[in-house]
Amino acid sequence: MLRWSDVIKYAKYSNPEPPRRVEKTEDEWRAQLTPAQYRIAREKGTEPPYRNAYCRSYEPGVYVCIGCGSRLFDSATKYHAISGWPSFTQPVAKNAIRYAFDGSHHMQRIEVLCNVCDCHLGHVFPDGPEPHGLRYCINSESIRRVDA
User: Fold this and answer.
1) Which domains are seen in the chain, by residue range?
2) Which of 65, 68, 114, 137 is catalytic?
3) pLDDT tens digits along 107-117
């Protein structure tokens, strides 16, 4: 299980090796994704809080990347964080997520991206529930729930 110190180490030094890589041109991404998905996943946007597909959804399944279908989060790690976005405590695997420092919007945050195709997912914060204390705050437009 990952802890905040692991997240910082990955963002600062080196992320885990992805299981594979998916690379596409921006035209290919635009053809595959809806305009909202493209704005968030490729241009690092965000969606309105509370008015997104998975904020209040707790059906069992696995959440996969909208860009490449890689498994990112299990519904068993999803919880109600009152943040307005789907929140998870852990990714499905240590190498599912890539971490990067993000100084945009006059804030210091850690961005989370799909480690396979670099789609922007959201951010991770150290204010999640114990025992690990992580809160992965993820845009619904960047993920899709599938049956496990």
Assistant:
1) 4-146 (2.170.150.20)
2) 137
3) 789 999 999 99
